[in-house]
Amino acid sequence: MVLKQINLTNFRNYSALTLDFDKRQTVLIGNNAAGKSNLLESIYLLSTTKSLRVERDEELIKDGEEFSRVEGFIDGETELLVVINHPTDEVIFRKKVLINGIGKKVYDFIGNLPAVIFYPQDINMITGSPALRRWHLDLSLAQIDQEYKKALTLYGDYLTSRNKVLKRIREGQGKVDELDYWTNGLVEKGKIVSGKRKEFFEFINQLSTPLGEFKFEYFQSEVSVEKLQEINGRELASAQTLIGPHRDDFSIILEGRSMATHGSRGEQRTATLAFKLAQLEYMAIKLGKRPILLLDDVFSELDASHRAHVVDIVGKQQTIIATVELENIPQEFLDLARILKVENGKIIP
Ligand code: ATP
Ligand code: MG
């Protein structure tokens, strides 16, 4: 699976861009603020309909413009299109996703251009909140597994409703048996979600990780009807569902040390990359084809031995690397790659 062409209209600092990916390997070179990360982000938007860098989709629209359009052609000439609008009275949609011109539900759109992205700031994943770690986890699992995607969405719906009922009961407006329906749904969908997360962690823990002996420890917040019954009093007091996949977490361990609390900056960065590359391998196994790999400024802080290992991987699938200086990129990759200069929202020939 290859992304052959991308067309941007009013996306971030791009007014209009058409770019053909003639080679499987691409290097984007340019100064700070040229638009390198934005270009990688636009590709990831086609993969997931999400950006890892913004809270609201509208932030992706070029300043002063009304809408943003990202179109990609993948092999077999399938056209993927994401359109983002500023919400106004006339505009009834904020984000529209289409395949070959036909509007799709987000969950049918995701997964057509599987990709893994690594940004330097993803290191936040290690030290940040469990929600951020789950987000990084979910974005890759959702791309490869329709059942996961649906179970996760429904789980979220049950969770919201169940919390509302808990609150009503606490306020004396509802009865405890009103919870049963939501509890059963929550447990059913929660088991699907945590089962698939568990399978993912089991797989990546038996991979040999060339970047170091990283282990990924999954802390499952196990949910069952019995467990929920046991904590019913506490749940009613707090009006919160206290266990389940929305409380899952994981940590990355190197030689017995948690990277969150004991990792050096370089180790945390390598750990993040190791996690992303493990996701790539899992997705490749599950899909039977390799996702696109998008690497933003990956080499600048890696030492020589780690660079060499990353080079082994970047040759295996379509890979797009952004960098400020070509010196940061190993020669073996440069030999394979097409080098594109990015300048002020344009590609300079
Ligand atoms: P660096 O090497 O510093 O990482 P970069 O080439 O990756 O630089 P980008 O993150 O792609 O730079 O950003 C390029 C420019 O796009 C920045 O000047 C940024 O402020 C600008 N930009 C971001 N969002 C928008 C937007 N919605 N409208 C217009 N410009 C934007
Ligand atoms: Mg950048």
TrEMBL record:
Location (main, coarse): cytoplasm
Keyword Transmembrane helix: no
GO molecular function terms noted in the UniProt entry: ATP binding; single-stranded DNA binding
Compartments, record wording: Cytoplasm
Occurrences of domain RecF/RecN/SMC N-terminal (ranges): 3-329
Family annotation (Pfam families): SMC_N (PF02463)
Listed GO biological process terms: DNA replication; DNA synthesis involved in DNA repair; double-strand break repair; SOS response
UniProt GO cellular component terms: cytoplasm
Binding site for ATP: G30, N31, N32, A33, A34, G35, K36, S37
Gene3D superfamilies per UniProt: P-loop containing nucleotide triphosphate hydrolases (3.40.50.300), RecF/RecN/SMC, N-terminal domain (1.20.1050.90)
Keywords: ATP-binding, Cytoplasm, DNA damage, DNA repair, DNA replication, DNA-binding, Nucleotide-binding, SOS response
Its job: The RecF protein is involved in DNA metabolism; it is required for DNA replication and normal SOS inducibility. RecF binds preferentially to single-stranded, linear DNA. It also seems to bind ATP.
Listed NCBIfam families: recf (TIGR00611)
Similarity comment: Belongs to the RecF family.
Protein name (Swiss-Prot/TrEMBL): DNA replication and repair protein RecF
Species per Swiss-Prot/TrEMBL record: Candidatus Daviesbacteria bacterium RIFCSPHIGHO2_02_FULL_36_13
Taxonomic lineage: Bacteria, Candidatus Daviesiibacteriota
Encoding gene (name): recF
